[in-house]
Amino acid sequence: MSNSQYQPPLEDIQFQLEAFGYNDVASLPEFEMYDLETAMECLEGAGDVLINSWMTVNKKGDEDGVHFNSQDNSVQLPDGFKEVYDEYRESGYMAMKYPEQFGGGGAPHMLSVLLGEIEIAANKSLSMCPGLSHGLISALKAYGSEEQKETWIPNLVTGEWSGTMCLTEPQSGTDLGLVNTTAIPDGDSYRLNGSKIWITFGEHDLTENIIHLVLARLPDAPAGIKGISAFIVPKFTLDGRRNGIFCTGLDHKMGIHASPTCVISMEDAEGYLVGLPHKGMRAMFVMMNEARLSVGIEGLSLSEAAYQEALAFAKERRQGRSLNPSRNDTNAAADNILVHPDVRRLLLRQKSTIEAMRGLACFTSKHIDLSHHHPEEKQREISDDLVALLTPVVKSFFTDRGFLNTSDAMQLCGGIGYTSEIPIEQYMRDVRIAMIYEGTNHVQALDLVGRKLVLGGGRLLRRFAKSVEILLTECAADSRLLEFVGPTKQAADSLTQLTMHMAQVGMADQESAAAMASEYLNVFGYVTFAFSWLMQCKEAINRDDAYAKTKLKTARFFYKHVLPELESHKQIVLQGKDAIMDFDESEF
Amino acid sequence: MSNSQYQPPLEDIQFQLEAFGYNDVASLPEFEMYDLETAMECLEGAGDVLINSWMTVNKKGDEDGVHFNSQDNSVQLPDGFKEVYDEYRESGYMAMKYPEQFGGGGAPHMLSVLLGEIEIAANKSLSMCPGLSHGLISALKAYGSEEQKETWIPNLVTGEWSGTMCLTEPQSGTDLGLVNTTAIPDGDSYRLNGSKIWITFGEHDLTENIIHLVLARLPDAPAGIKGISAFIVPKFTLDGRRNGIFCTGLDHKMGIHASPTCVISMEDAEGYLVGLPHKGMRAMFVMMNEARLSVGIEGLSLSEAAYQEALAFAKERRQGRSLNPSRNDTNAAADNILVHPDVRRLLLRQKSTIEAMRGLACFTSKHIDLSHHHPEEKQREISDDLVALLTPVVKSFFTDRGFLNTSDAMQLCGGIGYTSEIPIEQYMRDVRIAMIYEGTNHVQALDLVGRKLVLGGGRLLRRFAKSVEILLTECAADSRLLEFVGPTKQAADSLTQLTMHMAQVGMADQESAAAMASEYLNVFGYVTFAFSWLMQCKEAINRDDAYAKTKLKTARFFYKHVLPELESHKQIVLQGKDAIMDFDESEF
Fold this sequence. Notes:
- Two copies of one chain form a homodimer.
- By secondary structure, chain A is α+β, with helices and mostly antiparallel strands.
- Chain A is 57% helix and 11% strand.
- Chain A contains 20 helices and nine strands.
- Chain A has helices at 10-19, 22-26, 36-52, 58-64, 81-91, 109-122, 124-143, 146-158, 280-316, 341-373, 377-413, 415-418, 424-432, 441-452, 459-476, 482-508, 510-541, 546-562, 565-573, 578-581, and strands at residues 67-69, 74-76, 161-166, 182-186, 189-200, 209-216, 229-234, 245-250, 261-274.
- In chain A, the strands form two sheets. In chain A, strands 3, 4, 5, 6, 7, 8 and 9 form a seven-stranded mixed beta sheet that branches. In chain A, strands 1-2 form a two-stranded antiparallel ribbon.
């Protein structure tokens, strides 16, 4: 049924879990049931279910899309989606990452992020439904009342209900201060009126109920972002009434065709305040930060899926002859294209960045676990800082690279890659949105430069720099690692230098900092990749197996053929804002 | 009917024609009817027709696609395509670029390339039909017998017939030596049997007849690329019989949905040899070289169309406030997003590369005209060398950048850019194929490095270097231009250095040269952009008008924020092949 080659990359996942110290997480009392072996069994089991369910309808979902019925405001997902959703839901794997106290599996983030990678590769559109539920659960856990938690979370955990985030309005996207949906008190609850757009899985036929988290303004709300409150607005109230929240249309998108993107209209919808009045952005940010990491994973995930397609094609396709006669396959009229240097170059650009991303995903998610569960407060704070710092980088840099990687995968497949014969073109269309939603990648850069870098006078970055420094010192002691230590140190030094530059410039002129933010984030991204690779080299160097040997080769490619990309971004950061701002509106 | 903002960029076109010396072409006797004023009138007139015809069905064509009827092997284009094709055809503008001797307008290439830019922006799918006819006319002009020219060209010129290029077979794409379609002599003609794939406009309902140029092997053909002959195979023979050449299916593609990509089957199809036996690649290369330039223009054209959309959106959309209070629009709840530095940065990345491309397109097409028509043989040779050298760069670098530019345009529009509300996502899908067809961009790099650089011991590059050197010397004399001269010289020096490196390495090891070819081409591309901008600065510096003033600002952005991208590519070229080739097949 599926035209996809994808298999979960279990060998690399296990390597990464070892390289990034999964045992530091598994040894916490909360996660004692998830030792490394169990974790790998879970991923393998979930992967089997996903490949036999979600992945079988991924292409069909892209072709058929979702359908809106204006008669009853219903949205129909493509045939088979309900069945494969239920199949995975009932397997128990879908709830693995939800909190144990509400009936979930209670898996550590370090594991659930990798499970997410597989889910997205199997069916990105469908993965967004439980993904949003996950975010809503986290927001309610953090800011809901005890009653709200007990009321709403358990059915989200089983997947019988699903969640949404209702932020954007036609006039209010990046700038949420412009939200004007209203919420008027009505006894214990509120009546909401307004319109929302871009509401993923805002209406669908997979679950019995849909629980919306809605941003709105109370009558006494201050203007702007400080007057936003958050409300639970269910599609059906607990006594079974159809609530006044409706889908009134769908957007037609370049990709993720099986994920309904809804226009939502509220007419006296019953809602329940979450957290304090006017403090709704807090709850939304819990949800959004989690979503940002998982959007970053979309870049990794579809890179991997596209890479596997491209590799399979390269092994099969025969064109031309190797320039190295020892590689010639004399039994055939031509060699497979894997003999050609440029095909290898394109594959290795993908492979080396995929493995860098996966490592960094492990590092970041490990620190999410440590920030919640480590016995020492100091470590919890450090980990929390690292996660806050790396979230915008993961979201932005992974999705930019994900788009590039799917394009490289397409390129090496030639004409076939441009057709729906193989799913690369779908992956490219599906991954492109990840650069935009949950805050565009430039919004991430502003978060990094304007918020994360300045917190505590640069404390977050100092903590990351310290991790890098410790790793460099450890690795510098092993002469076999010096070829990797040198360029990592050079990249880290560039980042230090640019950060000081940004701090100086930004203090004097915020507009300059904003002008340089995206390119600064790029430099940061390459440094995190170099850090990720050095961690992996440190693990590989003392192992004898073939996989570890290949790791070092892939690292070598990364340091020679990818990391130098940093240099241009660095030069561009140093140009400042003048050439950008010196235009009148009429001159564009 | 159309959702597009596009208007032909006539102001920039006129500037470029002046900057790149259009009068050198217009003063040739062949082109005396096309002085600058007439040329601009033609473009304006053609643009008006195209916007009111082709562009009105561009979105519909994307949505409806083409339909294959397996009962009669026919292909139906979307509703309205036949009408708008005829409208443009009958306006006379479509034949403007075809040779005068066969009833065309006989316009210089320098003009027809810019006409092509507008046609592609109005409807890329549809532009491919007359585009292929143009290529076929050129091939027949160069290698057809007098009788063949008289027989086939005039109806191609009127657009009553259309042409195709039938090269690729399932086992034979980049490697055309693997072609195995056969041609057996049968009296004065030949009988062809075999299958072709990726045949653009291989079947359709726009024209009365379709004239295929087919690569096939004669019975006594040597193996490989030296045994390929070229044949005319019409859909209908001159006496009105349906020939044995049929469409048997269509490919489903990411974009260019209104351009039929056909599987073509030949069963004893009647064909006529073009040129000498076994020398078919010559005719095909005339067609292909022309096609390569025009594919490069696709990158320019859809960049421009996407830029205009993004700019219109940026002026309209209001989010947030400028960090510079003097730009705040106090009459509205928010400023338009054009006040934000990153929005400007994204726009200027597009604008500055679009104008670089357009200038280089003018330079290259001017030399096509000079290579054919200049009275002095020496100049004809020089121009011919420049065109041969720049063709792979234009094809490859323009299309890579075109894809990037449409992505930048989408990014600044946020969620809207990802939907079909505005046409940017269509432009992105439509332009992506340009990196693949007519020889993938890496094939262009191999052409540049393995063929063009070595011809005459480096003669072609020396001629380009001389053009750059003369320009640098001229500009260095004007102190106002020094800020642009410096980085141009530095870029040119980098290219010289890398070329020597490539020559040394490539002499010893062709595989190393192949490994570095794509990145070398990138460096070359940036140098051509810098050259293009310096030519424009030289023109602008002595003009007082507002447009010239903006030119210098855009140039400044290019030199500071785009040209530094060269640096990374340069560093990567110097890494050689080792880290790429050091993998066994099982290690990927």
